[in-house]
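User: For a benchmark we're assembling, each entry needs the component sequences followed by a predicted structure for the full assembly. Here are entry 17's components. Please fill in the structure.
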Amino acid sequence: DSGVTQTPKHLITATGQRVTLRCSPRSGDLSVYWYQQSLDQGLQFLIQYYNGEERAKGNILERFSAQQFPDLHSELNLSSLELGDSALYFCASSAIRQGVGTGELFFGEGSRLTVL
Amino acid sequence: DAKTTQPPSMDCAEGRAANLPCNHSTISGNEYVYWYRQIHSQGPQYIIHGLKNNETNEMASLIITEDRKSSTLILPHATLRDTAVYYCIGRTGADGLTFGKGTHLIIQP
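Assistant: Structure for entry 17:
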């Protein structure tokens, strides 16, 4: 158990819809990362938040957005869903030392999104 | 992050040491080498990391060549539960990790 909790574990929805994925980081971790893993793309970094502020952005589509709340949990919002958005979405958290992420990311078990 | 090259797949007999190579010839002086693994569709799991010196923890050992152009992850006594995709990542102090395709390690009974 990594200590990172993701909900829901599975989600099935239709094209054009909007979903929200939720992540609770490990206790004390200020930094949250979101990754997407589809069969043909591997693990893709989407976005990182640190203590409520966006810290780094990867290959995140404009239809996707995220935020980190004062209690440090994070949500990833996916809108106008397409078939190609079907994937595993992982959240990870890490400690920060001297203002920099340690590189030791702790991943949740993921949310499997299926878009029909 | 440094570009890393790993074999796409490897086999190892159960109980033997599994040695997973990684080439990172463009790694810069301040980039650490990180290893993660992912067991079928589970979240990736941190294994170990190092900069110059060899490192060992309860899961594995990491051997980094003196010129830092390559490294080897060693699982000393592989078990069937070690079957997974292993990722080698070069990383600076910047946040975020870039995962490549990794090595699919299959432990044979």
